[in-house]
Amino acid sequence: MLRLMSLVRLFVTHPLGQGQPVPLTREQAHYLFGVMRLEPGAEVALFNGADGEWRAVVAETGKKGGLLNCMTQAVAQGEPPDLWLCFAPVKKARTDFIVEKAVELGVRRIQPVATEFTNSERFRQDRHQANAVEAAEQCGATFVPEVADLVRLDRLLADWPADRHLMFCDETRAGPATALSGAPEGPWAILIGPEGGFSAAERARLAGMALARPVSLGPRVLRADTAAVAAMTLWQAALGDWR
Amino acid sequence: MLRLMSLVRLFVTHPLGQGQPVPLTREQAHYLFGVMRLEPGAEVALFNGADGEWRAVVAETGKKGGLLNCMTQAVAQGEPPDLWLCFAPVKKARTDFIVEKAVELGVRRIQPVATEFTNSERFRQDRHQANAVEAAEQCGATFVPEVADLVRLDRLLADWPADRHLMFCDETRAGPATALSGAPEGPWAILIGPEGGFSAAERARLAGMALARPVSLGPRVLRADTAAVAAMTLWQAALGDWR
């Protein structure tokens, strides 16, 4: 797929608008001037998750900081459909991957979930939020999903919002993919279980939840990262903004 | 998703059948006895891409070889739908990933394609065939897709089989995902272009090909590896064995 532009694309936590000066942090200055070798007058694409994407021009360069001036808005602020991706974290590289794909495929929120058979109890929220920012920079998104802290499945379900439907991927139901056609519109979540599957108690809990529906992802066993992308794809095509 | 069994699962290039002795290569012996520490009497799952999956028992161990005896067939030979995944190779780790996902998601053949804007002219067929074998071992597949040698797009299209439909993912058509519903049954292929996109000449060539149809994968730019998984998912759900 097309790598958007040859412009450097940078996420900033700063308001953006016509003529708005944007000061750079030390880290950003290092990236723009030390790594990417930009000079005064160079054009940069900026976004902050709220004001769309702006074209800005380098006004001042430096080792510890710098300044950009916003010129014009290039892309209006977008917002992906109201979809949460909930998943049991796996090994670091594959969890990184799931976060990256969730940003590319367009979710509103990334929610790691600890289940009975989760094989990785640690989840570095800060690291993965930074991954999400970087993924957004690289795929041209104007929206950066929030990456939440790890929560236990029983807590997640106990606090579940009454208006959000849940699609859970259940490996014990390997078989024809349950169609999402006819499923209700509105806020949704996808839940990808751990590689050990859900426990009997967890499965019973989900089966008893009116808002939850099981979806099989075909007859072959999928890794968690494959399942996450497949589930998000099916949802986007059936209920999201791929229609 | 469930990691199938705690049994060691091994691909062998040897006939399998009731009572069939299966001699091991040095490499396989090292893996089973040196790494996995199996002893005589231990059970192993074997497949060869043609005879399904068999349970076998370790009869002899050794540093340079060994012997297994097949006992019973556990899984009948499966064959994924007649789908080819054609894609422009990308950086090594992501190409590895695409191959792995193609095996998990169920394709018949993996065909790397060099296009005008391909950013990686090398494709180690042997390495990626080995990756495919390993992916099949790990995801419980009984079928290992053939990984072909790199071919140029113009050659691929010039020799295109008259009975195979082609779904190509065209980043210039970012927008609603074109539905595959109503698309014909039969042999199919997916073509994922390079990150630089197809050239104008390539796009014209594909547009003029009666068997080819463009499919958009939503409004956001996707990396090649994301696009590959998304495209395979959409196809499997619409025309494959996920139905």
UniProtKB/TrEMBL annotation, chains A, B:
Catalytic activities: uridine(1498) in 16S rRNA + S-adenosyl-L-methionine = N(3)-methyluridine(1498) in 16S rRNA + S-adenosyl-L-homocysteine + H(+)
InterPro entries: Alpha/beta_knot_MTases (IPR029028), PUA-like_sf (IPR015947), RsmE (IPR006700), RsmE_MTase_dom (IPR046886), RsmE_PUA-like (IPR046887), tRNA_m1G_MTases_N (IPR029026)
Domain Ribosomal RNA small subunit methyltransferase E PUA-like: 24-65
Main location: cytoplasm
GO cellular component: cytoplasm
One Gene Ontology term of the molecular function aspect: rRNA (uridine-N3-)-methyltransferase activity
Top-level taxonomic group: Bacteria
Signal sequence, renumbered to the chain: none
Keywords for this protein: Cytoplasm, Methyltransferase, rRNA processing, S-adenosyl-L-methionine, Transferase
PANTHER family in UniProt: 16S RRNA (URACIL(1498)-N(3))-METHYLTRANSFERASE (PTHR30027:SF3), RIBOSOMAL RNA SMALL SUBUNIT METHYLTRANSFERASE E (PTHR30027)
Family: Belongs to the RNA methyltransferase RsmE family.
Described purpose of this protein according to its UniProt entry: Specifically methylates the N3 position of the uracil ring of uridine 1498 (m3U1498) in 16S rRNA. Acts on the fully assembled 30S ribosomal subunit.
UniProt-recorded name of the protein: Ribosomal RNA small subunit methyltransferase E
Organism whose genome encodes this protein: Citreimonas salinaria
